[in-house]
Amino acid sequence: MTEKQSSNSRSLYVIDDGDRGLFKVARTAFVEKDVFALEQQRIFERCWLYLGHESEVARPNDFVTRAISGRNLIFNRDSKGGVNAFYNTCTHRGAFVCREAKGNSKLFQCFYHGWAFSNEGALIDQPGKDAYCEGFNDNGSSNLARVERLENYRGLYFINFDRNAVSLDAYLGGVKEYIDLVMDQAETGMEIAGGTQQYAIDANWKLLCENSIDGYHGGVTHATYMDYLVNTVGGMTNSGMGGGGRQLGGGHAVIEYAAPWGRPVAQHVPAWGADGKKDVDAIMTRLIAKYGEERAKRIALMNRNILIFPNLVLNDIMAITLRSFYPLAPDRMHVNAWALAPKEETPTMRERRLFNFLEFLGPGGFATPDDVEALEMCQRGYKNLRAVAWNDISKGMNREQPGTTDELQMRAFWRQWNTLMTAKEAAE
């Protein structure tokens, strides 16, 4: 069944007209406070949300603190090697028990009244504890509170605030194929390379979901980068943007395509010179030996922009980027971004990778400032929604095989968003 045949619905927010090949999204979905509040309940309270990568807590006692959907959390590896996600709040009076962004510690102590907790979450000391009743914490109610669910796939740790949610494995479903294509690039495993890049965008969070898997805007919005490539890479090794988009179920989606830039996994460009060619050939030889030529070439030569619903983007392009983002208001979001790389990568190839990452994907690179400007202009444009009330996301809806510059992948996101946001009304 084609996309066009399988869709024909209308809600307050989405017109999905398969008969006509039209897909529209109400601009109220980007501006209304009621929509923002409902998203917290029906999406961020119930979906699996990215917490961090295993390499961030590689050693016993490592920790990072992170704000996830308005909650302040501790992500850590305890003294016994277990990985945990705790709410960063003292069970006494509520203050943070950890005020550092990251570190290595066997305990967390609240600076307000001095209650101390092991890095397994147990309350281990209270000043003046003789003033408390016997058996005060025998039931564990004063231990650090754990996030309701914590699971991982290929080193990517996710949390869920819904204790009854489906397993992470079931939730990821079809997107696991593409996560595997990224993680299989490493021989010994992946690691976060460097720290966290953080910035804010004055736009609705869903605009970044769309933008991250939108091949349509690349040639226009990033025209300066395309010209730069022609003048600097020394030739177009894997030219063109051929490929296509796929909806992967559950709101997950991907575009996969060939592109001209160098890929540290195994796509050489003349600008890297003879030494770069040797490095790339060695990686390709290893991939072919391990996975066979067809899969090795797909891993090495194809690019992927992957959206893991609702708000995690895994860009496997000229470098690998993890990017998660959370709404602060209908017109503002906070973004975290990390570079991901194979642990065994040579220093020279790591330098090439991080150069690519900063050059295009970083907050000061060619792409991100362009994208931020575009998204903020969209948000400002929605002030005119009384005159123009709907966004159009119809491109390629009448095609059997949508291409990279079509909008199938955005429609996949919006169908899942719409299902979750209107499920109660539909049932009634």
Please characterize this protein's 3D structure:
With 428 residues, the chain is an alpha+beta fold. The protein has two domains: 41-45 and 174-388 and 402-427, Naphthalene 1,2-dioxygenase Alpha Subunit, Chain A, domain 1; 50-148, 3-layer Sandwich (Rieske Iron-sulfur Protein), CATH 2.102.10. Helices cover 30% and strands 27% of the residues. It contains twelve helices and 21 strands. The strands form five sheets. Strands 14-20-19-18-17-16-15 form a seven-stranded antiparallel beta sheet, sandwiched between helices. A hairpin with a 2-residue loop joins strand 5 and strand 6 (71-77). Helix 8 packs across helix 9. The longest helix has 20 residues, at 408-427. It is globular. The two termini are 28 Å apart. Residues 234-241 have low confidence and may be disordered.
For the structure shown, list the relevant keywords.
seven-stranded antiparallel beta sheet; 12 helices; alpha+beta; Naphthalene 1,2-dioxygenase Alpha Subunit, Chain A, domain 1; 428 residues; globular; Rieske Iron-sulfur Protein; 2 domains; four-stranded antiparallel beta sheet; single chain
